[in-house]
Amino acid sequence: MNNKNKPVIGWREWVSLPGLGIERIKVKVDSGARTSALHAFRVEPFQREGQDWVSFDIHPHQYDLDTVVTCEALISDIRTVTDSGGHQSQRYVILTDVLIGDQQYPIELTLTNRDTMRFRMLLGRTAMNGRFLIDPEGAFLISPSIHQLE
């Protein structure tokens, strides 16, 4: 595998989820997680034109419970996911585009309540596979730092 032309990302980065109306969200790059996970609450499945959809709210910014973005997405799957603590739960899976640096492409996201977690989103290895190299000591290598954005 040729790694010469792959951009390097740090252990945390800013990304966008344009299909969900999320302009920026800080992610923890987690090569130990297979699938990416997005913070979601008030998760409600519904039917639209004979298809299974899900409506959910998120707090896109760390430590900010006042800002809420309401999203809707087509349900791609429902899976049993084992978290880092070994707990299993059923999660809705959606497919949506992610924008990292100058790359935009579809990824799978599981929806789970991450209110007690520091990051609102985990970027799992299948979302990065073949696209990036990870520098575990670096942060915001492909996106501006927090201080530049806030």
From TrEMBL:
Which terms under GO biological process does the entry name?
proteolysis
* Domain called Retropepsin-like aspartic endopeptidase: residue spans: 8-141
Its keywords, alphabetically, are:
Hydrolase, Protease
Question: Which InterPro entries does the annotation name?
Answer: Asp_endopeptidase (IPR008503), Peptidase_aspartic_dom_sf (IPR021109)
In alphabetical order, the GO MF annotations are: peptidase activity
**In its keyword annotation, does this UniProt entry include Membrane?**
no
Q: PANTHER family this protein is in?
A: ATP-DEPENDENT ZINC PROTEASE DOMAIN-CONTAINING PROTEIN-RELATED, ZN_PROTEASE DOMAIN-CONTAINING PROTEIN
Q: What is this protein called?
A: ATP-dependent zinc protease
Organism this protein belongs to = Amphritea atlantica
